[in-house]
Amino acid sequence: MKTSLKFAAALLLISNLSFGQDITKKIDSIINVSYQKNPEIGISVGFIKNNEEHYIAHGRLNAESTAEIDKNSIFEIASITKILTSNLIAQAVVDRKIKLDDYIDNYLPKGYVLNSNLKNKIKISDLASHQSGLPDIDFGKLIEQNPQQPVSSVTEKTLATIINNCTELKDYGKYRYSTIGYTLLGQILEKVYGKSYDEIIRAKIIKPLHMTHTFTKDFNVKNRTTAHNPNGGIQEFFTWNVTAPAGLVKSNASDMVTYLKEVLKNESTIGKASIIAEKIYYKDEKREMGLGLNISTDDQNTIYLKSGDSMGQSSIICYNRAKKWGIIILLDQRNSKLRQDLLNQIYDNVLK
Questions:
Q1: What range does the record give for the signal peptide (predicted)?
Q2: N or C: which terminus of the chain has fewer CB atoms within 10 Å of its end residue's CB?
Q3: Measured between alpha carbons, how far is 216 from 101 in angstroms, rounded to an integer?
Q4: Strand 75-76 to strand 227-228: parallel, antiparallel, or no bridges (unpaired)?
């Protein structure tokens, strides 16, 4: 009987390995076709299925280097940062620091003075699901002023002025993507924990998971990729400032797979927070939103995803809790169409 059990276990192991290898080959084939068509765009992909990790990468760190992009190469994850922030918000719920239906009024820094029309109106969950109705940062204007570092001039005073001058929430309760909302969530976290956002994300996500290649303020490392705008020109990585909770974390495929593995553990701190974030907080005819997550459901699957675009890089993360898989796609050029096409092809041909 013991021999039979050992033999069955060995067969299962071999089966799982070949299954993983088969998936990797299929994904690699899709990525390779894309890279052949777009050899100027570097790609790093990390995939997890039943706790097994797989990585695929193509391209060089920069035009002058012979070093190849790999699972440890550093990219801007851009707005994927928002799901890290929303996970921290959900952790704060678990820690009983906040409730998602709390109004934001008493959690904002002292410089913020809400107009009477806005008081006891906006909930924390409204910020996290992009339905607060608050005006946002004018990125178009900021890009004109400084195309390399558009958010560098944004300060807490800038944000307070925008909020304090708002007298009406014209589209409250309707989806409108918001950078300022996630910046405010970062400041709410700072107030309830009495620490900076940088300290909080390090203490509650980066350090516990040993994400040694995930960076906040200091990302001057040798294995950093080069960012390119849609026309192929070199673009600087965004420097850290008050808008960090909305999109300024830098990481790589390996660390983001580590994060996905923890997300898929139902009983871990991050996993429990992720389950809170996966609930539907907004729904209309076009979309369903969790806390920072887009929710997509078909007959057989519910997937959670978030994309990101800096001025020079694009990324997307996606996972299926029920089927225990997750994927991160990182591009060294801003190209939202390519990153979405890659995910669609991989999902339709491999994961679905």
A1: 1-20
A2: N
A3: 29
A4: unpaired
